[in-house]
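Allow me, if you will, to draw on your knowledge of protein folds for a short while. The matter concerns a single protein, recorded as an amino acid sequence and a row of backbone structure tokens. Kindly check, if you would, that the fold set down in the tokens agrees with what the sequence suggests. You will find the record immediately after this paragraph.
***
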Amino acid sequence: MEGKWPGWGADAGLVVLTFLPTLLSQPYVDTSGPAWASLAAYEASGVVVVLLRRRLPATALVVGFGALVVALVGSAGEGAKLSPMVFLPTAVLFYNLGSHCVSWRRTVSAVLGVVVLGVAGLWLNRMTTHSSDFRGGLDVLAALAPMPLAWVTGFAARTRQALLAAAEQRAVEARRTQALEAAQAAQRERARIAGEMHDVVAHSLTLLVVHAETLRARGGELPDWARVQVDGLAAAGRQSSGELRDLLGMLRDPADAVPLRPVPNLGELDALLDSHRAAGGTVELTMGIARAVPGAVQLAGYRVVQEALVNARRHAPGAPVRVTVEVVAGGLRCEVVNGRAVRRGAAGAGIGLGLVSMEKRVVALGGDLTTGPTGDGGFRVVATMPLECAGV
């Protein structure tokens, strides 16, 4: 209903502006009873025609002009005159014909109908009126002369609207084409990256797993501490290979967003810490979760702890690590603090993107990541992520 009110309001305004000037000017032309009777009948029919002008533009013009002819001829036969403003609705109908009638056949037929009615009206007027004061002549032609201009104005308005609609459609098509080209370019880039990762990373991981399994097969020749390290190395290699395979699959086909293996969550932190201990590290976990945590937040928390432990092994080997995971103030807080390194870390270890990827993952969930050295020579990582703004 709300969408119809503006249209009805415009129609009501047009009716007032079209027919009110005639009523206001008629007292200055003729106040006789026949004049008012003809004017009232004409305006009553004209209101109906104007309201129906959009649906039947050609018919509205012919009927409206016919009513005008009847009113003028009838009033002239009674010795009465109508205000020249009675031609104003005809101008509106001519404009409407140009702006709404798209059929040239109907347009020509309507114009021919108006011409026939005009000629017939002039003939009847001369036959029924004996006084020259009430015979139509140059005054009628002067009133009808601007009507073609009203039609041209309406036709120009319709043409402009059609051009604007075509321009908007072209803009929509251009945006759609641009989006499609961008998606295709992104897909080609993802495929290229997937190919590079497969050729470089997957090959290296495969060699790592093969060498680890070879060492495990000869475990009897190794000391106990070496067998534990080899087992951890083989498990880490197999896990990384599986995750890389899932990642490459999603890069090649973004529609395949379902991983082939379960997504890690906070329930697997014990296994993650055990792998850290198996690699010779010391870690202590404090868990304080008393409510459900969305899966996306659990995955981010797991990855933060995982990356922090990897960084501790690289840069502070042998240092004790304290991991705290708890829900505080409606958010998940993950804190990983490692002490001073017992021995020197590996030179050039890592590629320097661990903290960057952690921050992006946390910020994407509306959280905050704080990292920095501690006073005793260690390093501290604190990630806080809201539970309600995780987008899940």
